[in-house]
Amino acid sequence: MAGPVVGLWLFDEARGAQDVVAGLLPWLETFCDPVRPAGDGHADFWIADARPLGLKQADVDGTGCFTLGADEQIPADDEDYAAFSRPPTHGIALFAGSSGRPNHRTLGHLALTLARRLDAPIDFDGMLFEGPSPFPGTLREVSYDTGDGERSVRHVGDAEFLAAWLRHPGFHLVK
Predict the structure, then answer these.
(1) Is 20:42 a contact under the CB 8 Å cutoff?
(2) What is the pLDDT along the chain (175 residues), one digit of tens a residue?
(3) Cβ(52)–Cβ(32) under 8 Å?
(4) Domain of life, per the record (predicted)?
């Protein structure tokens, strides 16, 4: 994928990530056209009506395909979840097929809507900025093994943080 990506952490041990994705498809079909499920548990979709995301139609002009799917890397043994009361049991990922401001903003609003719907923290798949967050809500760092013996960190935040970050003129996601 060429655009930004975010993840949502799930804590429901009874339902797997692929079940959650399958359960979201009817909801996506209410404002996306087409929604194309793939055999691998992912679905590609194009937003036809921006209103359910709190956006104007002009806000999604120029966006392309988005993808929703199970994140098979969550939870990971090499990640430090100490900043949270418990580690996630599953994850889902959202991808924008293209970059550019409309795709970042639309993906941000899609992640916010799903985070509220699923009561899920948002994994930003990288660092949004340096230093403490100047925004309301919760933003924490999760360290992980980079595979070359080093460790890096990424941000994970709640819906309140993402809502405030979306209102900031410098809003962006990690690509």
Answers:
(1) no
(2) 489 999 999 998 888 899 999 999 999 999 999 999 987 889 999 999 999 999 999 999 989 999 999 999 999 999 999 999 999 999 999 999 999 999 999 999 999 999 999 999 999 999 999 999 999 999 999 999 998 989 999 999 999 999 999 999 999 999 8
(3) no
(4) Bacteria
Domain ranges of the chain: 5-127
Q: What is the 3-state secondary structure (H, E, C) of the chain?
A: CCCCEEEEEECCCCCCHHHHHHHHHHHHCCCEEEEEECCCCCEEEEECCCHHHCCCHHHHCCCCCEEEEECCCCCCCCCECCCCCCCCCEEEEEEECCCCHHHHHHHHHHHHHHHHHHCCCEECCCCCCCCCCCCCCCEEEEEEECCCCCEEEEEEECHHHHHHHHHCCCCCCCC
Q: How far apart are CA 106 and CA 4, in angstroms?
A: 10
Cα-based distances in Å from 2 to 79, 97, 104, 119? 25, 6, 12, 27
* pTM of the predicted model as reported, rounded to 2 decimal places: 0.95
d(CA 125, CA 22) in angstroms, rounded, equals 23
Angle at 149 between CA 71 and CA 73, to 5 degrees: 5
